[in-house]
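Work package 3, deliverable 3.1, input record:
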Amino acid sequence: MEDTIVAIATPSGVGGIAIVRLSGQKSYELMRQVFSCGKVKNFEPRHAYLGLFDAKDLTDHCIMIYFKAPSSYTGEDVVEFQCHGGNVVAMKIVDRLTELGARIAQAGEFTKRAFLNGKVTLDEAEGVIDIINATSTAEARAGYELTNGALSSKIGALQDRLKNVAATIDVVMDYPDESVDDDANIDLSREIGEIRHEISHLLDGAKSGKIIKSGYRIALVGKPNAGKSSLFNNLLAYNRSIVTDISGTTRDTIEEAYEYRGIKFVIIDTAGVRSTDDTIERIGIDRSIDAINSCDLILFLIDGADSITKEDIDIYNIIKDKNYIIIVNKCDISDKCDVSQFNGEKLYLSAITGKGVDELKEKLYTLATSDMRQDTLALVNKRHISILFDAVKSCDAIIDKIKMGESADILSIEVDQLWQKLGQITGNCDRRDIIDEIFDKFCVGK
Amino acid sequence: MRKKYGVIVIGSGHAGCEAALACARMGVKTLLLTLNLDSIAYLACNPSIGGTAKGQLVSEIDALGGQMGIIADKTTLQLRMLNSSKGPAVRSLRAQVDKNRYHIEMKKVLENTKNLDIKQAEVSKILTNDGKVCGICTAQGAKYLCDCAIVCTGVYLKSKVIIGKYHANSGPNGFMPANKLTKSLITLGIPVKRFKTGTPVRIHGDTIDYSKLEVQHGDHVFPFSTMTKRQAKNVKDCYLTYTNLKTHEIILKNLDRSPLFNGTIKSTGPRYCPSIETKVVKFADKDRHQLFLEPEAGNTKEVYLQGLSTSLPIDLQEKMVHSIAGLENAHIMRDGYAIEYDCIDSLSLYPTLESKIVNGLYFAGQVNGTSGYEEAGAQGILAGINAALKLKNREPLILDRSNSYIGVLVDDLVTKGCDEPYRMMTSRAEYRLLLRQDNADQRLTEIGRNVGLVSDARHKLFREKMYTLSSMYEILDQKPDFSELKAFFIKMNESIPQSNMTYRAMLSRSNIGINDICSHFDILNSYPQNYKDIIETEVKYAGYIKIQRDEIEKARKIYDEVIPDDINYNNIKGLRIEAQCKLDAIRPHTLGQASRISGVNPADISVLSVYLKVLKSKKK
């Protein structure tokens, strides 16, 4: 027997309502122990009851809805309590229910049960789990698009095109006597080329997906005292309440994240970058270099109150081929620093007073979103990304084979496999579809 | 009269003949009952055997020890290799055959087969005892006892012929229908449905103006059967002509008189075999459709007009034919007609073709909703083998999608069913590079031998072939003189390699063919061309063949998991109701088959696979 699980189903933080969800065989029984609604004895499924939740040291009004298996999100008996927002009430309810025998759900466990009970498809389940793991609005939206089958429908459209290609190749093989050649005269390599283009366009969404999921990564570099830490704190201080700690933080590079207009930004404060013989410092510098190489953008801080030093030039040489913006700090104190020897976009600000920091944030937002391409579907799921990468490779192989004059049987097998590969995302690869296409499109048969 | 047989086969079409021969040859006392002895192995529609994907089926029947390929070879009028330029996976033989001699030769074989009785009678009832077949009754009043029965009734169950307003309760070509058996099947609980098909006109050859037609000659290729020693002789030609706008106008103006369009025919017809009415309506932008003129037999002037299937009234048939180039004065000897018939829902069968509802009752051929002589023969031989194995208390034979088109056919039938008559197509087979016509014997002859159907003579021929192929490979694995190789590469316009290589390595290059190598280096010249072709395919496509083999292995690990017969899908927590219903109705044999059922999604399969694992661990 599956145990009964409980969790707060709404995002943490301030909100008008919080929902606590119970799922499992004991859900109804547990609810009866803590919830009362006048003289109601038998709660009807799918009815909303306004009543009292008794959490021993706290009694509060809440709305209770009971979903009877299998007509529920997880396919099991589910009870939802809609209580007053904020974490206090919801946590009390969860505590009380766990006292009575429910278990705190693991991340994604409701969806996992929904999937195992056949309530959602793999595609949808992956989408919902991404929503659960989502830590920012954009990530939640990407998850939502997947749940809604946005990816499925795009891939479905590509499958339709491939189905047409497959039917066109197959009809000539299955009906060698028939003069369908005129109708079957499509430019195969162009068609596959276009499909490849569409898939790689979707894969651009993998980059957005990465930004959405992991955040837009910004490395702060600059010599000591250029103001890295001040800027770091200033960027984060803006909305401290939703700043999250990133695990695995080393003492040599510090990462923290903030959200701005729905996008997650991860700021990495690097140790200084300079040549050294000190082994420990060397490790710190290596990590900084790693951060520089793996980030989406580098903010190169220059102390505007000082003149350019050899250290600045060393750093510039390391980053000059990468994606960077030059930040001239301390613009409130002095403008004596001549940065004209460095190429690239320059922003003037004061990390201490905060002057120019809003402009920087807006700038970072623009850069992050331009990387994300608004018209691309954000791909946040690793399995999908790897299938699509494979699919691009298959397209290239097919185009090569067409050029080499490979025989129709081989081409048809390759196209078939590509079609099935995409079917791993949509779950749709019934070979009868291709046969339907043949008969819809071509006039064949004796 | 209460004679007892092991197996009774009902119907002597292409399924019935293969089924009866398989049983008798496997040593089972067999009775073959037919409505009319003159309709044995009758080619009711086109006078040809084979074709794309169907040629593979014929070779597979042959490889298992069946008869169709042998008779087709014996009665061939013209033989062609289709798709020869489109790659080895889709090459298929098609033979125009003499339909009269085809019937006579098959009848002769049946008559001379040990353990086999043939009798003309209409079966009216299948007798059961405790859910198990125990005999049959004939309409004429006889009763025969048996342990298994194989229903191969083709299109004869309550068949109705339709031409315009005319309709008659008749089988094909005026043969009598079987009007009683459907009721017995329904009483037993077998789900019955109604399908429709059709056939074109036959015209008198002397009234055709051949000067206006394109001729189609045969190819010099090797025949279907391992047992046939000689290459086929092409003794007749086929011709090609086209319909035109005038033909189409005649049809379009008279659609209200077409049974297909005025509602007279309500049953489901096949899309791959559409009537000319359907083609003209559905593909209105085409200004012509091609028609093939095929000889019906060597001793008749009747010509079959492929492409002009119709159920229009006869005056319109006449007008239509006369509007076509070369047929202006053609005399129609037999009218085209549509035919409706009862068939069963193939989802009620196991992959052995035994009914899930009645123990010992098998179904094969068109009665299962398929179409085509080859599809019928393929099912016939499989049902025959399985009925015989059952009587011997041996494990049943289940062919799968990776070893044969027969496996694809049966899997589709019992997993997906059919909502229209089912025709085999290469597009249906995912592993078609492995399911070639040239290796049907390598795939199936040892299987046929193991079940006891492949004769000593056939088995010996097969072993000899395998031995020959391996000695050919031994030669190919040698290297020529390096200077010879250089000369050869220069001749072939290939860049000269750094070091010497084997003949096999040369052959794997895309621009070098086996005959180039054989003639330049003077090797393998005494070996037959069809063996050389096999080797060329195997070497050139070795990479692809390996990929498909690996895929099969991978799938096997996941999907070969057998689902116990007594599984109760309602007990499996987490299966969606729709999946429960579908799985319960179809009762798949393996997890792989379950995964191919429409309406069963990947989540259901993972639930099912988890359940099976739990079940297994509990048993331990």
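The interface with chain B takes residues 70, 75, 115-122, 125, 166-167, 170, 172-179, 404, 407-410, 412-413, 416, 427, 430-432, 434-435, 438-439, 443-446 of chain A (CB under 8 Å).
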